[in-house]
Amino acid sequence: MPQHTAALDELRDLVARHARPDQGTAIDGLLLARADAAEAPSTSPSGTVLALIVQGSKRVSVGEKVLEYGPGQYLVASVDVPITGHYVDVDASRPALGVGLVLTPASIAELLLAAPPGAVPVRGSDAPLALGVADATPELLDATARMVRLLDRAHDRAILAPMIQREILWRVLTGPLGPSLAQIGIADSCTTQISRAVRWITDNFAEPFRVDELAASCGLSPSAFHRKFQGVTASSPIQFQKQVRLHQARLLLVSGDDDVATIAHRVGYDSATQFSREYRRRFGESPGRDGARLRNHAGRTA
Questions:
Q1: pTM of the model
Q2: Basic and acidic residues compositional bias: what residue ranges (predicted)?
Q3: What are phi and psi of 81, to 5 degrees?
Q4: Full DSSP string of 230-257
Q5: Which of 129, 180, 242, 288 is the most exposed place for a label (fewest CB within 10 A)?
Q6: Which residues does 254 contact at the CB level (< 8 Å), separation at least 6?
């Protein structure tokens, strides 16, 4: 893990001062996160983001892959997939703090077009895992600090924020996670092909599907599709659909409007017993107990 730097110390102060509950900021695409207490792991969409930890640590999993990153390390999520995560090494006197940047294909494609030949690391035909972690360089930490510093300098934001964002993306593109980031900006990359399948499954999670038909919609053979999908999401298409269904079920349980059997049917399960078994395996508790606990927590938070 990289040593503490002046930029990291400054980022701690800035994030602690500016972080809001909704993580938003006055700079479009810039997110600030703060957690004052450790909580149980929760599942949510990853988005396509760059996430830098400046204090504390975070543990996330996609499929069967588990990653942990701490101060001065960053994560790139190149595909919007359901992930399970939580902050660790957190207490009220030392909250977890992080900086996020939403990644858009257009901004990355622009840099790829302007990059000199060989400047961006390349990867073979298979797409990288949707999540990757690396150590931030001093240059990346410095650029990130200058970006967050603009929250105190309203008159500079419109001009400097796009320039610094471009620098941050360039530092990541030319680093160890460059291939993952580059895949977002390439229209026909493996990542964009699998992203289409991920989006379809996420939008139609209750519907059955044939893997060969989904593969054809991505322009891939069934064997190539299965290999690439597994490489990006660390799960098979059917396992991924199960993860999305269980995540959606958990959201429905929080609202408390339906019973467990009704929710099981709404997310695509024919058997409430199978749903309860797979839910317990995924979240460690029965749907009823987990839903009650989550509703209780949501009520205390409110």
A1: 0.81
A2: 282-293
A3: -125, 155
A4: HHHHSS-HHHHHHHHHHHHHHHHHHHT-
A5: 288
A6: 291, 294, 295, 298
